[in-house]
Amino acid sequence: MELLENTVAEIDKLDEGKMAEAKEKLDSLTKPPGSLGKLEEIAIKLAGMSQNLYSKVDRKAHIVMAGDHGVVSEGVSAVPQEVTVQMIHNFLNEGAAINVLANQMEVEVTIVDIGVASELEIDGVVDKKVKFGTNNLLQGPAMTRQEAVASIETGIEVVTEKIENGANLIGTGEMGVGNTTPSSVILTAMTDLPLDDTVGFGTGINDEQLEKKKEIVAQALDINQPDVSDGLDILTKVGGLEIGGMAGVMLGAAAANRPVMVDGFISGAAALIAQKLEPKVTDYLIPSHKSVEPGHIRMYEILGLEPMLDMDMRLGEGTGAILGMNLVEAATRIISQMATFEEAGVAEC
Q: Same structural domain for residues 201 and 252?
């Protein structure tokens, strides 16, 4: 708990002076003020994070947290739990979508076993297992409070090591069959939204399975009664280990003044937990894309963020986060490489 408390205490507000300086610089470039929209907003936000007008995001690290869920036994997924381990092998063999995109973008990918339900003895996987999958949240809390803290602190430890080794832009991703269910429970717990707005098809279940999934989400809330004012209690009662891990990555990156990419629905659930633990963390989150999961846009509304991309994606792994990294790098190049009106000899707009 000490690591979590210390990390949260180290998260600062953005440097407003440096952000104002960045806006002034952007307005002096050879374009109408604000004409590059979100790219300018990102450049300004990065200046506030790094306290540097010219932020660098040339060392990209993407962290995939892998964990299983006891609620899978209730039939909430279209694929069996064994797929978690199979996909981990696929990641390591460079065969998954995240590998293709990361290789294109020159992003280092790290796979972390934070809660896979089986014993993994695979070279290339970082062993940080907190427990062998969560408990079935229809039979009580998904984990103990100590395990919830451990999952968050694991994320902090992993991202801190990456940053100490030079990473300056962090991506969040996950692998875990059934993880849209706890994500839906987290969102529903934090809002008064109807289940139609918080529960989606996930891996591709049919209409009948979707209705059952909605019932399970409602039952999980009724059984566990999470304290919506306490992010740790929500994670303990109805969360996932990989969700806690990603929340830790977000908190750890923010404490180190590094930007961190929010991916899809499950990454959004992690961001909600992180925000509950320290609201200032959202200043360091870069929203990548909007998932087709209905609750994802609702998560962004709570976080006060607006996604850059809408690609009809729902894969997970952090695929949207990797795509978004390209735009973040573009923002840093705009502010550092474009000519000013004075330099170019162009009349100001």
A: yes
> Could you tell me if 95 and 29 lie in one domain?
no
Q: Are the CB atoms for 203 and 79 separated by under 8 Å?
A: yes
Q: Are residues 48 and 143 in the same domain?
A: no
Please give the C-alpha separations between residue 208 and each of 199, 216, 218, 257, 319, in angstroms, as whole numbers.
13, 13, 16, 45, 28
pLDDT of residue 78: 85
User: Which domain does 132 fall in, by range?
Assistant: 60-325
Catalytic residue numbers, as ranges: 317
Total domains, the chain: 2
What tokens does 162 get? 């990456």
Q: Which two tokens stand for residue 121?
A: 């003895």
43 and 71 in a common domain: no
For residue 329, the Cα-to-chain-centroid distance in whole angstroms is: 18
Q: How far is CA 185 from CA 70, 200, 206, 312, 314, in A?
A: 14, 11, 19, 22, 18
| pLDDT-based confidence at residue 51 (cuts at 50, 70, 90) | very high
